[in-house]
Amino acid sequence: MSDWTNVIQATTMHDPISGAINTPIQLSSTFNQLDFDNFGHFDYARSGNPTRESGEAAVAKLEHGKHGYLFSTGMAAISSILFTLSAGDHIVVSKHVYGGTFRLLTDILPRWGITHDMVDFSDLDAVAAAITPATKALYIETPSNPTLHITDITAVVRLAKVHHLFTIADNTFLSPFLQKPLDLGVDIVVHSATKFLAGHSDILAGAVVVNRSDLADKIYFIQNAVGATLGVLDTWLLLRGIKTLGVRMTHASRSAQKIAEYLAAHSKVTRVLYPGLVNHEGYAIQMKQANSGGAVLSFDVGSEAHARTVVEALKIPVFSVSLGAVETIISYPPKMSHAELNAQALANVGISPGLLRFSVGLEDTDDLIVDLEQALAQI
Predict the structure, then answer these.
(1) 46 classed as catalytic
(2) In this predicted model, what pLDDT tens digit does every residue of 80-126 receive, in sequence order?
(3) What is the pLDDT of residues 43-93, one digit of tens each?
(4) Which one from 52, 89, 139, 170 is the annotated catalytic residue?
(5) 170 belongs to the catalytic site
(6) What is the full DSSP assignment across 198-214?
(7) 139 is catalytic
(8) CA-to-CA distance for 86 and 98, rounded, in angstroms?
(9) pTM of the complete model
């Protein structure tokens, strides 16, 4: 079955009672038990809800996984995965990760005796050197936020298997429509479902998908124990958003490719970070493991002052945090997604003062290019 068909099949449920093709919204926190000794499948909504279960089944199907879990936010999903670790455990993490993940790793987990090393995952020797007897997992984000750094998923999985580690991949930037890490051997896939999966800047959500039952049990235990679950109405909105995932990702990715090529040739732009460009250092790997370069790119205009000028001159994009929506969003990572990092840490991961992240939406591509042209002319 093609991904186009799979998206619709996964999100179009046939209610056995009414025949409704949209998932019913079950607004109930608790469920009647007919038998004193034998409880039904649902008892309390933190532990399970019919609407959320439908959404979890949908994201699992999209990722070719067996077990799916929906969380209140993307960071709740990431946190719940890492909370399966224990004091004394160690994790090797790509240094190119979202600022919220960086904050969790550096400011929270060490309080509980969970340590980490951050390395460049394009250097597998460096990754292998960071592995210790206490290491339990390898964590990657590909493409990364906001530098669009590409990690060779298959190579990381191969290394993990040699050392008997499990692998975690943040697949937010591409969505399962463009990349399926589980198919490449990854053990756990995580999303900020707020972004491309939902696609409309209207909800916060996180998703985790796994195939291994042992990992699924651990993740569900944390989800239920801490109560980091997605609400019923937000689950319904997520399902509705996913229905258009295929058309959204296809249009936005094509636009991003065209815009990246335009920016790469512009005299006011010092560099363009987009894995769909043939001169991107991760291009060959990206084309091997994904269907396109995706719908997000970053470009450098040389300085914070120039970045400010461009943002203030643009008329179509929204200047905001987040990405993956129907509207184009331009962001300034040093003060937004990666505000937790100091100047040295930003430089270490390639986030320069003039870097802008551009999440392409569904507007006309040529209109966006004309807008960028007039904005860049201001610097």
Answers:
(1) yes
(2) 999 999 999 999 999 999 889 999 999 999 999 999 999 999 999 99
(3) 999 999 999 999 999 999 999 999 999 999 999 999 999 999 999 999 999
(4) 170
(5) yes
(6) T-SSS---EEEEES-HH
(7) no
(8) 23
(9) 0.96
